[in-house]
Amino acid sequence: MIRLLRGAVLAVEASHLVVELGQTGVGLQIFVPEPTRARLRPGDPVTLHTHLHVRETELSLYGFERPEELSLFELLLGVSGVGPKVALAAVSTLSPEAFRMAVANREAAVVARVPGIGKRTAEKILVELQGKLAPPPQELEALAQVMDADVEVIEALTALGYSLVEAQRAVQQIPPEITGVEERLREALRLFGA
Fold it and tell me: pLDDT tens across 102-136, in order?
């Protein structure tokens, strides 16, 4: 099983990266979360925690910059009806911290924001992951404030004409220490301008 790789980005494609391992001349196709793919450029060094997904007709490699993202991805794969594309969309849309908070608070509407996850699947995910993703108590209050602010920021960004996916991507990139709605909105707009 391939669990970690280091290399340089050769290409950034619509759904994946091509990463060369060292100076081997071997380039691997790796599916990564949207925020990672949007941030990286050819030539950038990258270290990814990986999951090799095996099917009858293909092998697919999924990579994540943070071990928490990989853990969430693999937990989601354990939910019946959730495949690697939907699990990757979940990690692309919600940070592991936001996902843990949604599961802890049984907020199916938050999970249903993920493309490819409807209300029924969101409820199934909440049931199957209950107790597996419980956030530590010291995180609860700060995450609740950030999630409440994020809902308002996403609504404001979509009112300004940004798509839901663009708004969610921007919100996911905001550092968690920025907690106020106005500050988070300002930071999201700054990210769009960068």
Answer: 888 888 988 998 989 999 999 999 999 988 875 54
| CATH code for the domain in which residue 88 is found | 1.10.150.20
**Residue 183 is which amino acid?**
E
CATH of the domain at 52: 2.40.50.140
How many whole angstroms separate alpha carbon 184 and alpha carbon 147?
11
Does residue 123 sit in the same domain as residue 152? no
Cα–Cα distances (Å) from 95 to 1, 15, 64, 99, in that order, read 25, 19, 12, 6
> 91: Cβ–Cβ under 8 A, 6 or more apart, which residues?
33, 64, 69, 72, 73, 76
Structural domain that includes position 169: 138-193
pTM: 0.73
- Residue 79 is given by DSSP the state S
Per the structure, how many domains does the chain have?
3
Tens of pLDDT along 3-39?
999 999 999 998 899 999 988 889 999 999 988 998 8
